[in-house]
Amino acid sequence: MSIRKMISLHPASKDHLNQSLGNAVHHLMYCAKMCMSCADACMAEPKDMTQCIRLCLDCSDICEATARLGTRRTGDDQPMLRELLELCARMCDACAAECESHDHEHCRLCAQICRECAADCRNAAASLA
User: Fold this and answer.
1) Which chain regions cross the lipid bilayer (predicted)?
2) How far apart, in whole angstroms, are the C-alpha atoms of residue 21 and residue 24?
3) What's the rounded Cα separation, in Å, for the pair 61 and 74?
4) Of 84, 95, 100, 119, which is most buried, counting CB atoms within 10 Å of its CB?
5) How many Å apart are CA 93 and CA 99, to the nearest integer?
6) Mean pLDDT on 58-72
7) What residues contact residue 92 under an 8 Å CB cut-off, 6+ apart?
8) CB 58 within 8 Å of CB 32
9) Is the separation of the CB atoms in 128 and 21 below 8 Å?
10) How confident is the model at residue 19 (pLDDT cuts 50, 70, 90)?
């Protein structure tokens, strides 16, 4: 089962899925969980990882909220969704930059998913014009 399929089955979607938005929601869900996992791993690191933990947790929360709004097809709030997607892309970029400054495999993976998610969020925001 995929979230893309679930969104396309919504009666308001009329069997059509904005592919860019579907891709973003898919990545947002994974990014939220990867950031949460990275934050937890950072807590176990011997050196102070406070800023990385904070950005990972903030990114996770924003990704979760954006994914929830992205799956809603009833009604129309595209301007707000577009703004949230753009904000989420900036948050993902900030989290990725912080994670890239650390030499931990969990941070490397987190940065990678954040970069992918940011790109998908920007594509989805542009598709909502």
Assistant:
1) none
2) 5
3) 23
4) 95
5) 10
6) 94
7) 31, 59, 63, 114, 115, 117, 118, 121
8) no
9) yes
10) confident
Side-chain half-sphere CA neighbours of 126 within 13 A: 8
**CA-to-CA distance for 16 and 9, rounded, in angstroms?**
8
The number of C-alpha atoms within 13 Å of 88 and in the hemisphere containing its C-beta is: 37
Cβ distance 118 to 92 under 8 Å? Answer: yes
* Rounded-to-integer distance, Cα 17 and Cα 10, Å: 9
pLDDT band at 61 (very low <50, low <70, confident <90, very high): very high
Q: What is the pLDDT of residues 88-124, one digit of tens each?
A: 999 999 999 999 999 999 999 999 999 999 999 999 9
Q: Is the pLDDT of residue 51 over 80?
A: yes
The count of C-alpha atoms lying within 13 angstroms of the C-alpha of 34, restricted to the half-sphere facing its C-beta, is 24
Give the C-alpha separation, 52 to 41, whole Å.
10
